[in-house]
Amino acid sequence: MSGETKFVTELIDFMPGINMPVGSVSGHISKMWEDSGENPLSEFRASQMNLVLHFGREVRPKEARGRFEIAVRFAQRYPSRIIVLCPYSQQIEGMRAKLFSQCYIGETHREMCCCEALLLAYSSEDNGFLFNQVSVWLESDLPTYHWFSEVRAERVIKYFDNLLKRVDRIVYDSNIELLDFSTLDWPMPHKVVDLAKARLLPIRQAIGQYLSSYSIKALTHQLSSIDVFYVEKRKGEAHHLIDWLNLSLKRKPVGKIKLRKTVLDIKAKEQFGFLIQYSDGRFIKWSQNLGIPITELTHSLSGQVEKLPMQIKPMSPEQELSEAFYF
Asked: What's the pLDDT at 257?
């Protein structure tokens, strides 16, 4: 029908919360937490930080909703004001907002945590307005942590001098980003952390404990190659694992070592692992298999092949955020 306005579903429409004018959000939050008699809700929402979850234009609604829920679970443990940035998929004038709030009862039924999330839909060209609006919504005098999720690198660079200027930590996940953000010319690179590296912590702890039982001489003598193999969805972890192995095994000069990364088929039995080889035939191999929680480390450092089962419990996504933000 001519003259009829076509409604376009945007990312923010797939997210929870109540629609409201952008300028009304702050006022609604103040009224929502007003003391009203005994046991005011404001006692259960003392924020420790601001968490900005920043989506790119190409992120799919299902993945965006899942990452939002991770942020909410994180906020239950580390009380936070969550700000979610949802760019329009096409050029649309103006901004839209949603307000999400929910209280969660702890395991003892005597504990309660109230979370709030402010969601903003905006045009990708509204950089100045975006910075101003986020500044208004941030809780002052609290640290701010910025989580990028599938935002194009060229857009991230444009935020260096405004949106990211005063943040305390910036995180991204190289498993899902098209470009490794570590290659960007960050003004303060020490503030930038890859979630894929944080995700490796239980693996590094388990493998590191094993390697520490051998002398550095035994681990480096005639070392010839380090090969990390992985399925594509774990490319970021593979990058950090080979760097960590190389650093761990080169505390002394050992000559030139071949470093290789091998991409496996998504249906491969072995999904992630490494193979360390020595010119005298010795080896160390560790792998994680699809659907099997117990990993296996095989080696021949002592002259005969030995197998060592390792149960490595992965961190939850919210624990990964905590590791990236605080450590």
From this structure: 85
Average pLDDT, stretch 303-322?
Answer: 94
Per cent of the chain over pLDDT 70 is 89
Mapped onto helix, strand or coil, the DSSP state of residue 96 is strand
> Strands, DSSP E only, in the chain?
18-20, 49-55, 80-87, 96-105, 112-122, 144-149, 169-172, 192-194, 223-231, 258-264, 270-278, 283-289, 294-299, 306-311
Given the DSSP bridges, would you call strands 18-20 and 96-105 parallel, antiparallel or unpaired? Answer: antiparallel
Give me the torsion for CA of 236, 239, 241, 243, rounded to 10°: -150
When computed from its CA atoms, the radius of gyration of the chain, rounded to whole angstroms, is 24
pLDDT at position 93: 85
Residue 167: closest CA among 318, 325, 322: 325
Q: Which residues contact 92 (CB under 8 A, 6 or more apart)?
A: 8, 10, 123
Q: Which of 56, 55, 111 is nearest to 82 (CA)?
A: 55
Helix (H, G, I), strand (E, B) or coil at 12: helix
Going by C-beta distance under 8 Å and a sequence separation of 6 or more, which residues neighbour residue 254?
Answer: 220, 221, 223
pLDDT of residue 293: 81
With b for 16 or more beta-carbon neighbours within 10 A and e for fewer, the 273-304 pattern comes to: bbbbbbeeebbbbbbbeeeeeebbbebebeee
Mean pLDDT score of the chain: 89
For the purposes of burial, counting CB atoms within 10 Å of the CB of 1, is it exposed (0-12), middle (13-18) or buried (19 or more)? exposed
Threshold 0.85, pTM exceeds = yes
Backbone angles phi, psi at 141, to 5 degrees: 65, 15
Taking residues 139-143, what's their average pLDDT?
93
Residue predicted with more confidence, 322 or 104 = 322
Are 260 and 225 in contact by the 8 Å Cβ rule? The answer is: yes
